[in-house]
Amino acid sequence: MSLLNPVLLPPEVKSYLTRGERFIKWDDETSMASPVILRVDPNGYYLYWTYQSKEMEFLDITSIRDTRFGKFAKMPKTQKLREVFNLDFPDNTFLLKTLTVVSGPDMVDLTFHNFVSYKENVSKDWAEDVLALAKNPLTANAPRSRFLDKILVKLKMHLNPEGKIPVKNFFQMFPADRKRVEAALSACHLPKGKNDSINPEDFPEPVYRSFLMNLCPRPEIDEIFTSHHAKAKPYMTKEHLTKFINQKQRDARLNSLLFPPARPDQVQCLIEKYEPSGINIQRGQLSPEGMVWFLCGPENSIVAQDKLILNQDMSQPLNHYFINSSHNTYLTAGQFSGPSSSEMYRQVLLSGCRCVELDCWKGKPPEEEPIITHGFTMTTDILFKDAVEAIAESAFKTSLYPVILSFENHVDSPRQQAKMAEYCRTIFGDTLLTEPLDRFPVKPGVPLPSPQDLLGKILIKNKKNQSPAPIPPKKELCEETEGFSQPSPAMGEDTVWVGEEEAELEEEEEEEESGNLDEEEIKKMQSDEGTAGLEVTAYEEMSSLVNYIQPTKFISFEFSSQKNRSYVISSFTELKAYDLLTKSPVQFVDYNKRQMSRIYPKGTRMDSSNYSPQMFWNAGCQMVALNFQTMDMPMQQNMALFEFNGQTGYLLKHEFMRRPDKQFDPFSVDRIDVVVATTLSITVISGQFLSERSVRTYVEVEVFGLPGDPKRRYRTKLTPNANSINPVWKEDPFVFEKIMMPELASLRVAVLEEGGKFIGHRIIPVHALQSGYHHLCLRSESNMPLTMPALFVFLEMKDYVPDTWADLTVALTNPIKFFNAQDKKSVKLKDTGNDPPERPLPQRNSALGQANGALTSAGSSVAPSPNGPAGTKGQL
What we know:
By secondary structure, this protein is an alpha+beta fold. The chain has five domains: 15-141, PH-domain like, CATH 2.30.29; 144-215; 219-306, EF-hand (Recoverin, domain 1, Orthogonal Bundle), CATH 1.10.238.10; 321-465 and 524-657, TIM Barrel, CATH 3.20.20.190; 675-804, Sandwich (Immunoglobulin-like), CATH 2.60.40. The chain contains 29 helices and 32 strands. Strands 4-3-2-1-7-6-5 form a seven-stranded antiparallel β-sheet. A five-stranded mixed β-sheet has the order 17-15-14-18-19. A four-stranded parallel β-sheet has the order 20-21-22-23. Strand 29 and strand 30 (758-765) form a beta hairpin. Helix 10 packs across helix 11 (264-274) and helix 22 (574-583) packs across helix 23 (585-594). It is globular, with a radius of gyration of 31 Å. The N and C termini lie close together (8 Å). Mean pLDDT is 87; it is low at 468-517 and 836-876.
C-alpha cells in the first residue's frame, strides 16, 4: 500500500555535485567571465554558484529545462570572450570543458547559463546528472514537506558576510503579512528587526517547523485530529491513527485481500517519522503537530505515484496509444508574425512530445538551403538543417520512445528534397528508421509495430511516391493527398500507391486541380487548412524514408475499413475532425483502432491558441497536435496528461478504444459496458501561502471528460478576509456524481485572486487521484511546480451506483446491517400504525443471489470486479 511505502524516493545527489567544481561563468551580453564554484545542495533543490566575492546565485532545479555540453553548448560570440578562451587557436579544448544550463518559466522565455570548467570532460557528468535531478518525477511531484524543506534550505544557504541569516530574507520569503512573520519569529524567541540576523545554528529544522506553525496555524487539521483521537486526550494512539488511515486515507474500492489495510505495528513507523516528541514516540502516540507533518509527507500524496513512472504495456501497436504531438513546432509566438526558432524543437521534445512538425520550403539561391517557416506569413525562417540537428540532439533525452517527424513539404525542387533526405540520413544516423521491421511488413492487415519495437527510432511522415519514374512537381488541393503516378507492375499492392489514391479520389469526386481554383477558394482553403493543402509531390529521396506513417487524404470510414491499412494516416483540421466526430462517433473510434489520425488547429487561429484536445482523445485520435508555445487551458491539459507513464509521450488507450470486438460511443450518456463509472467528491478545506500579497481568494473545481460527464464548474466563496497565508473555506463537498470513464477524465483545481487573477492550479487524471486528506501543491500556467502555494483538500472516490440500486448495493456490502435496519424500519412502521410498503423487501437469499446477474444487467456501474467483490478497485 503506497500510504505506508511511497513508490518514489528522493533523487540521489552525487557527492561530487555537493562538493562543487571550479568553473568560469561567462555572459555574451556583458562580455564578462567570472570564476565561480558550482554546486548542488545535498537535497537536490538548487543548482547554485558562488563568486569570489562570496556572492551566491541560485537556480531552482525545477526550473531547469535542459543541460548541454560539448558542441551542443553555447559558444561565445563576442571577440573579447573568444580571446579569453583562446577560441581562435586551432588546438583549443573549449568543447571539452563547456557546459550550458537552460532554464525558464516556459518553453519560449529561456535563460542560458554558460560555464567553462578548468578541467576537461567534467562538464559531461555535470550536464547528465543535473538534468537527471531536474527530470526525476519526484522533483515536480514532491510532497508538501519537501517544498517546505526547500524554503529552509534556501534560508540557511543565503547568508550575509558574517555567515548569518538576515531577518529581511524572512520578509522576502513570506511577503504577504509582515506582522505575522514578526510574531512568528518572536514566538520562536528569534530576532525580528529588519536589520537583525540569525545564527544558522539557532534555526534548526524543529525551530523552523515551530516558526511555520506559528506563521501558518492549521486549525482545520486540529479539527480532523480532534474527531479521530481519544476524547479528552491531547494525542492520537497508533490504533486511532490506524483507524483514521483505513477509514479516510484508503480508497474504499480496494480489495482487502489484495491490498490489506494498515496495521498498528506498521503505523508505529509513521509515528516515529513524524512525531516531534520523543516521549510520544515511545508511547505510540501522535500529537496534533505530528498529524500536520504526517499529512504533508509522501505517504499522503494526492497522486498515485506508481502512475507517474513507466507503468503501461508498451508492446501494443503504435495506433493504440495517445501520442504527445506538436503543431508548427518551430513557432515561438503567433502564426502570422514573430520569430521561428530551432530551439523550440529542443524544448518541445524535452517536454516529452513525440511528434513534431516541420513546414519545409525551398531555399533561395545561391545556397539553396531548404528552410522551415510558416508559408505566406511574416514569420522568420530557420534552416532545415538546424532544425534536424536540434531534433537529433534532444529527441531521446526525456523519452527513449519513437519520435515522429510530420513533414509538410512545399519544397518543389528535386535537388533540395534530396538535400533534406541526406541531412536526415547523416545527422540522425542509425536512429532514422529507413526500412520496415521484418516482423511488421508494410502490408494491408498487418498491425503497426509497438513503441517498444521502435525504441530509439525516428520515423518520417511525408508523402510517399513509389513510382520509379521522375514526376514533375505538382501541387495538391487536398491536405496530404498523395501525388499522381502510375504504379510499377513489379511493386506489390501492399503500398499506398500515389496513382491508386488519385484514382480513388476521382471515383469519389473529391479531387480538384489547384489550377481550377479561383482566388477566393484558395483563400478559404488556406484559412481552414493553412498551407497543408498545398503540399508538393515527394521525390524519390524523401519518399524512400517513409514507411509506417504514410499520409493520405481521408475519403470515408467505409473506404478506410475496406483497405485495412494500418500504416496510412490522415490529418484533419479541428473543424473537419469535429464534423466527423459528431456525425460518426463510433466509426471514428473504430478507424483509430486500426490506423492513426492527426488533428491540428484550424488556420484562422492566428494567435496560436489551441482547441480542446479532450473531444478528440475521447474518439481515440492518437496525434492531437497543439501549439506548444501557447500555455492556454488545452495545452495545460495536454501537459498534465502526458506527465504520466514516465513522461514517455505515449499513453495506452482504454481497451474499448483498441479492441475490434468492442463498440464505444464517446457521446454515450447512460453507461459503457463493463466500465465502472466513478463518483468523485472533493472538499476544498484550506490554502497555504497562496499569494505574495494579502488578498481574498477563491477556488474553482471542474472535470474534463466525456460529453456525458458532469459539466458543472464549481466555485467556492471568496474568503471573508484578505488572508493568503492560511485561508479556510467551510463549504460542502463538490460532487461529480457520474464520471463515466475515469481513464479519460481529469480533475482541475484552480486558485484565483478576487478579480480573477490566476494564482496556481493543478490538473490530474481522475484514475491517478487518491482518496483522503491531501495537500495539493499548485503549478504555474506552464505546469511548473510552485514552491509556496498549496491547497488542503479531502477527496473521496466511489463506484457510481444508480439510486434505484442503492439498497441492493448496501445489502451486498453489509447484509447483516442492511436487514437489521430493515427489521427496525418494519417494527417502527407497525408501532406507528402504518402498513409496511406493498413492495416486499429483498429476501436475504435473493438479494445476495443477484450479485452476479442483476447488478450487471442494471448497469455496469456496479459490476463485480475480477479482482474482488463488486465495485472493488483492482489497483492503487
